[in-house]
Structures are given as structure tokens and as C-alpha cells.
Design a protein that fits this description.
four-stranded antiparallel beta sheet; alpha+beta; single chain; globular; 28 strands; 6 helices; Methylamine Dehydrogenase, Chain H
Length: about 500
């Protein structure tokens, strides 16, 4: 009887200890549980300020590591939610809500990417398993940023990192849709998916669009935003895709070779395409879908620009660095400038009568007076400037620079990270700089001028940033441009 009582007492003590221990553990893990519930549930439940802060630290740490498995909280700072302070000039509840939405989008994007990787592995046959596993392995961390507690707190940084999109093989071209709710990205020479569409709001991968077994090069939208046009190098074709249904509606044949860049006339009725190996430009009637003519141009044409009056076409020659001016009415052509290097991309501010053209070989942005044909240097850049874009007010030119090439092959990561540079179009002064990943290439700005998306080509990902107003950039004393070069080396 005494033994039975003794066992009962011992059992009671052990049970009490276990209950106390369980309560302590529950208390210690409560914040993490709340965080997971708040961040991962994609619903409209209200997010508390405290849990949103905890989530923001975790998300910013993810932004630094590019690995969902490394999601851990970092040291709290008193001004975590000042990311829009430089944009709006004041704190607001709206800023917090907006950042909470970004937090949810990042978590959703992480989950979706892992799901996609699992699906890709299941689809593989034994033959290409090793190759695809190599393609989807975790992206190498940008060591230049590893000691920064928050990516948005880099010294001088004026632009704000929102989230990453992945996995996208060889992301070559990118464009926001008409209302900037979606991002369309092409995959160069990808037989499984030529175009991928992401939601800007949720971060979800909305659709993979197959282009007849080949990849896509560039993507642009019709003037009314109803259709997307995607060029395909391998076949010399252009795919017209309904922006709403994501279905291919028509396919145009350029009747040339290695089609790359496209431009649409101001009236929306004509599509021009540069054909790299064909050394010509195809002119396609968008009403009938018929090829009107092929215009012989300089060798390896890349960037093209059709003027708003429909009279002139400018062509950037890559192999010798020419700027060619073509009269679309008479057919007359002349080279107005030759750098001897590698002209790549053209954008225009017709109100000021100015073209901006990137030269990958010279590492500069040229400015062309459209009336006098005078060519001057707007700004010097980092190595291999390629895609460029103007903000809607035409005050800021954003340039993606791939960085120095690998000595063995530019298909491999080089000795330094790429960069995204923001320049004042009036003065050529650098307003801000972003240290990017391996070979940033694709680039676009939303129609309202608030968002920037670019691709790290060799890292198979996109990055989304928020752009502050011109006044903030102008008053930002160069932003990170004074410090970023020290972080370019690997």
C-alpha cells in the first residue's frame, strides 16, 4: 500500500513538471507560431503591428540569403518601416499595410518556388535529371551583402527592395503589363516555357506559356495593353498573346533570322523587329498580320526605335557600334555615328528630342539630338551596360550593367556582381545604384514609375524594387552611388 502511494506521488510530481515545461515551451514559441500564421496564410485577416514587424525582420533576412530555409529573425531596428519615408516624406499606416502585403508576397513566392522545384524534379526522366538539378540548386548568396542586417538599410540606398521572383531559366526580357499587376518574363531558348507570368500583388506564378517548343527573347505590350508580343530567335517568329487569357492568338513570321528586339509604331498598327543574323528589320502590319517588307540595315541590329510621327526608324548596330537613321517613307539610310564597339538598346524622350543608347563596349550611355544628329556622352557606366529604361516623366534613365565577363565564357558568372544604375537625364549625374546578382539583363519600369523589375540572368531570378520620386533621388546626394563600387567584387 505504501509503495502504491509512493508511485502515485512520484507520478503526480512528474506529471506536474511536464505540464509546467509544456507551458514554458508554448510561451516561448508563441511569437513564432503567430508569425507563421500571419505570414503564410494568404487571406484578408488583419495583421497586427507586432507580428508584422517580426515578419519583416525574417523577410529582410530572406532577401539577403535568397534561401527560404535560412528564414530567421534579425536584430530589430527602430526604423524598419521607414522604407517609404524617403518616397513619401512621412510615416503612414498605409506604408505599414503596403509592406505587410510585400511580406505575404515573399512568403507565398518562396512556397511556390519550392513547389515548382519539386514538380520539376518529378517531371524529369533519368536522362536529364542531373542537368536540371544543377539548374535549380539554391542561388549563390551575394557575399557583398551578407553583413547587412537589412537589404533596405544599405548605406545611401534610395531604391527599396521588395521581393524576388524565381525560378526562371535564362530570364532575357521582362515587362510590366498595362496596369502593373503582372510581370511577364521571357526565357531564352527554353523549350519548356518561353514566357512566365507573375502576379506583382501576391508573388504567385500565374502562367507558364509555351511557345511551340522554343524560348522567348523580348516581350512588349500593345499600345492598349490587350496583347503581349514575344520574339523568338530560333524560328524568327513573333507570338501575339492575349494579355487576359494568356493564350496565343496569332503568330507572325519575320521571314528573317535570329529575331530579337521589337518596337510598335505610335498608332499601334505596325510592329518592327530587328533580326540579328538577318541584318534587317521586319515591318509587320498588326491589322492583317502580314509582313509588309524587310528593310536591310547595318550588321547585327539590336535596339530599334520608331519615331512618333512614323517617319523615321533608328537602329543600333552591335558589331561595329553604329547608329543608323532610316527614312521610312523614302527608304534613305545613313549612319549618323559609329563608336566602333557595341550599341545595344535605344529609348527616347521625344518631347526633348533626345535618344539614349547604351554601348556595351564603350561602357557609356550616348545621347542623340534627334534634330541635329549630334551625339554626345550622357554618362559612363559599369562594365557591359545593356538594357535601359526611362521613367514615365523621362527624368531618370535606369541602366542594367552585366558586370565584367568571365574570362573563359560570358555564359559563366564573372569576377564581379552586376549593377543597376539610375541617372539624371538632364545632367548625367548618378542618382542611386543597386548591387545586383550575376549578369542583370532584363529591365522594365511600371507605367506609374513606382516599380522597377530586373533579372539576374545567370541566377535565374527577378528582383522587384520600389523607385522613389525624382525629387527624393535628386536630393539624395547620389544615394548608394558613392559606396556601391566597393561591393561589386566577389
Amino acid at each position: 500500500m505504501k509503495k502504491a502511494r509512493l508511485y502515485l506521488i512520484v507520478f503526480t510530481i512528474i506529471f506536474a513538471c511536464l505540464m509546467i515545461y509544456a507551458a514554458v515551451i508554448d510561451k516561448e514559441t508563441k511569437t513564432d507560431a503567430e508569425l507563421q500564421t500571419t505570414a503564410t496564410d494568404n487571406n484578408n485577416d488583419e495583421v497586427t503591428n507586432e507580428s508584422a514587424k517580426d515578419c519583416s525582420y525574417a523577410v529582410n533576412n530572406f532577401i539577403n540569403t535568397d534561401n527560404a530555409d535560412d528564414l530567421v529573425t534579425t536584430e530589430k531596428t527602430s526604423n524598419t518601416f521607414l522604407i517609404d519615408n524617403k518616397l513619401d516624406g512621412e510615416k503612414s499606416n498605409g506604408t505599414l499595410r503596403e509592406y505587410e502585403e510585400n511580406i505575404k508576397a515573399v512568403i507565398v513566392s518562396i512556397k511556390h518556388e519550392k513547389k515548382r522545384e519539386a514538380e520539376q524534379k518529378e517531371e524529369l526522366n533519368t536522362e536529364n535529371l542531373a542537368q536540371t538539378q544543377a539548374e535549380i540548386k539554391p542561388i549563390k548568396r551575394n557575399n557583398a551583402l551578407k553583413n547587412a542586417p537589412l537589404l533596405n538599410k544599405l548605406k545611401g540606398q534610395l531604391t527599396t527592395h521588395i521581393l524576388n521572383f524565381g525560378h526562371v531559366n535564362s530570364p532575357k526580357g521582362v515587362a510590366f503589363n498595362f496596369d502593373a499587376t503582372e510581370i511577364w518574363v521571357t526565357s531564352l531558348m527554353n523549350s519548356r516555357s518561353g514566357v512566365t507570368v507573375f502576379s506583382v500583388v501576391s508573388g504567385d506564378r500565374i502562367k507558364d506559356i509555351h511557345l511551340d517548343g522554343y524560348g522567348g527573347v523580348e516581350v512588349i505590350f500593345s499600345k492598349d495593353g490587350k496583347y503581349a508580343y514575344v520574339s523568338q530567335m530560333e524560328t524568327g517568329r513573333i507570338f501575339e498573346i492575349d494579355a487576359n487569357t494568356k493564350k496565343i492568338t496569332r503568330i507572325f513570321n519575320t521571314e528573317s533570322v535570329w529575331t530579337k528586339v521589337m518596337d510598335i509604331s505610335a498608332d499601334g498598327k505596325t510592329l518592327f523587329t530587328s533580326n540579328w543574323s538577318g541584318a534587317d528589320v521586319s515591318e509587320i502590319d498588326l491589322t492583317t498580320g502580314e509582313l509588309r517588307r524587310r528593310i536591310p540595315v547595318v550588321k547585327t541590329p539590336r535596339g530599334i526605335y520608331a519615331t512618333e510621327d512614323g517617319k523615321t526608324l533608328y537602329v543600333a548596330g552591335f558589331s561595329k557600334g553604329e547608329i543608323q537613321k532610316i527614312d521610312l517613307l523614302t527608304g534613305d539610310k545613313r549612319v549618323i555615328f559609329k563608336s566602333g564597339r557595341a550599341m545595344r538598346h535605344i529609348v527616347a524622350d521625344e518631347e526633348r528630342g533626345v535618344l539614349f543608347i547604351s554601348d556595351m563596349g564603350k561602357r557609356v550611355i550616348f545621347k542623340v539630338d534627334m534634330k541635329t544628329d549630334e551625339v554626345t556622352v550622357l554618362a559612363k557606366t559599369d562594365a557591359n551596360p545593356n538594357t535601359i529604361a526611362l521613367t514615365p516623366d523621362k527624368r531618370v534613365l535606369i541602366v542594367s550593367c552585366r558586370g565584367k565577363n568571365n574570362l573563359d565564357s560570358y555564359y559563366r558568372p564573372g569576377p564581379e556582381w552586376g549593377s543597376i544604375l539610375l541617372f539624371d537625364t538632364q545632367t548625367g549625374k548618378m542618382l542611386d545604384a543597386i548591387v545586383a546578382g550575376n549578369q542583370p539583363t532584363a529591365l522594365d519600369i511600371s507605367s506609374d514609375g513606382r516599380l522597377l523589375v530586373f533579372s539576374d540572368f545567370l541566377d535565374a531570378r527577378l528582383k522587384l524594387y520600389k523607385i522613389p520620386s525624382y525629387d527624393v533621388l535628386l536630393g539624395g546626394e547620389g544615394g548608394r552611388s558613392n559606396y556601391y563600387k566597393a561591393d561589386l567584387g566577389k
